[in-house]
Amino acid sequence: MRIDLYATRDDGKNWAKWSTHEGRESPLKVALDTRLNSNMDGEYGFRLVAVSGAGLSDGAPQPGSAPDARVHLDTIPPVIKVFQPTADSTNKNTLILHWEATDKNFGKEPVAIEYSESASGPWKPVLNPDGLLPVSVGALRKIPNTGTYGWQLPNNLATPKVYLRFTAWDLAGNRSEVTTPHPILVDLMKPKARLQGISISGR
Questions:
Q1: Where are the domains of the chain?
Q2: For a surface tag, which of 27, 152, 171, 172 has the fewest beta carbons within 10 Å of its beta carbon?
Q3: CA distances from 71 to 9, 44, 78, 107 (A)
């Protein structure tokens, strides 16, 4: 006995024989990166057809037949653009971070933002109020992809400039990361001047 695997890319409207497997093979390993499959990403539907040694089977699925199983393949990582932060005019000591992250398969909270006083790290989450605890990737808290985040600056920054790192994950686990190439000024102190006196020049 053998197993014929049929696939559809349009939810059963059209079917094609994808591959043939020995009847004893379990689980089936399916190669999607074939030369005839130029666009791997997207929806797949599959149906198995058992074929006896005499060639008897239920036949290939007909147009309009529903798949037995559906799979969505996503191999494309998110795209991230980072923009210049701006001061928050309503909240003291708060910097508004701006970014744009795009992907077809984002979850509810796909973005993480970190900062570092050095280009080589260590990296700390902007969501950590005290800014003291570096975190591992597994523990890194994520936020919704709103494009803006109000970061209340920690009090213990050793420098008025920091690097920012934005990371985004999609539901398939694809990951992208963008780090600002130059440190960002985070000194939000407003300069003040006071007149000390007036003197007449030339006398």
A1: 2-73, 79-185
A2: 27
A3: 10, 5, 20, 17
Give 167's DSSP letter.
E
Per-residue model confidence (pLDDT) at position 139: 61
CA distance 147 to 198: 49
Question: Mean of the pLDDT values across residues 164-177?
Answer: 95
CB 181 within 8 A of CB 122: no
- The 3-class SS string of 95-154 reads EEEEEEEECCCCCCCCEEEEEECCCCCCCEECCCCCCCCCCCHHHCCCECCCCEEEEECC
Q: How much is the pLDDT for 201?
A: 66
Beta bridge partner(s), residue 70? 45
CATH of region 79-185: 2.60.40.10
Q: What is the mean pLDDT of residues 74-87?
A: 95
Q: Identify residue 92 by its one-letter amino acid code.
A: K
Residue with tokens 């001047």: 193
Q: How far apart are CA 150 and CA 94, in angstroms?
A: 6
Count of CB atoms situated within 10 Å of the CB of 134:
14
139 — phi, psi (to 5°)?
-100, 0
Where residue 3 falls (left for φ over 0; alpha for ψ -120 to 50; beta otherwise) is beta
Prediction pTM value:
0.76
What is the reported pLDDT for 77?
Answer: 96
The C-alpha angle with vertex 185 and arms to 181 and 190, in degrees rounded to 5, equals: 170
